[in-house]
Design a protein that fits this description.
4 helices; MIP18-like; flat; three-stranded mixed β-sheet; alpha+beta; single chain; FeS assembly SUF system protein; GMP Synthetase, Chain A, domain 3
């Protein structure tokens, strides 16, 4: 099964440049540079005149929402030196007229803070100005995994 394989090398002095792409349509009149510039100007004026969408102060990106997230980032898991938000324990934050509903989990159902952590979250979030009351819904499905962690948390724990 000894097959001889040969490699052939071809030497060239130069290579012709590839042809340039052209789009030609005989039925359409050629567009002048002035027409192209005017079309771009119209687009930019329309784009710049558009007003940004109003953000809901209670929705994602709103001031109250961000204040709640900041409060959650001040709560640390006692066994892992990372806040519960970056750890990926917070699944959802809903705000409706001052009422905050937080859906969260813990690293394991047998976590030693399973009884105290939801109460601490309610107290911290309830203390945010603008929050009337806070409620925590503790869930186990989907279960927490290290994939839920933010890149900051992974970096802090040496996992990146």
């Amino acid at each position: 099964m000894n097959e001889e394989r040969t490699i052939r090398v071809e030497e060239v002095d130069s290579v012709a440049p590839p042809p340039k792409a052209r789009v030609e349509d005989a039925e359409l009149a050629p567009e002048t540079m002035g027409d192209k510039l005017e079309r771009k100007r119209d687009y930019l004026e329309g784009f710049l005149a558009a007003k940004p969408a109003a953000t809901d102060p209670h929705g994602v990106g709103g001031d109250l929402y961000e204040a709640v997230i900041d409060a959650l980032k001040e709560i640390y898991d006692p066994e892992i030196p990372v806040n519960i938000y970056d750890l990926g324990l917070i699944y959802n934050v809903e705000i409706d007229e001052g009422h905050v509903l937080i859906t969260m989990t813990l690293t394991t159902p047998h976590c030693p803070v399973a009884e105290s952590m939801p109460g601490e979250v309610e107290l911290r979030v309830g203390a945010v100005p603008g929050v009337g009351d806070a409620e925590v819904n503790l869930v186990w499905d989907p279960p927490w995994s290290p994939a839920n962690m933010s890149d900051e948390a992974r970096l802090e724990l040496g996992m990146l």
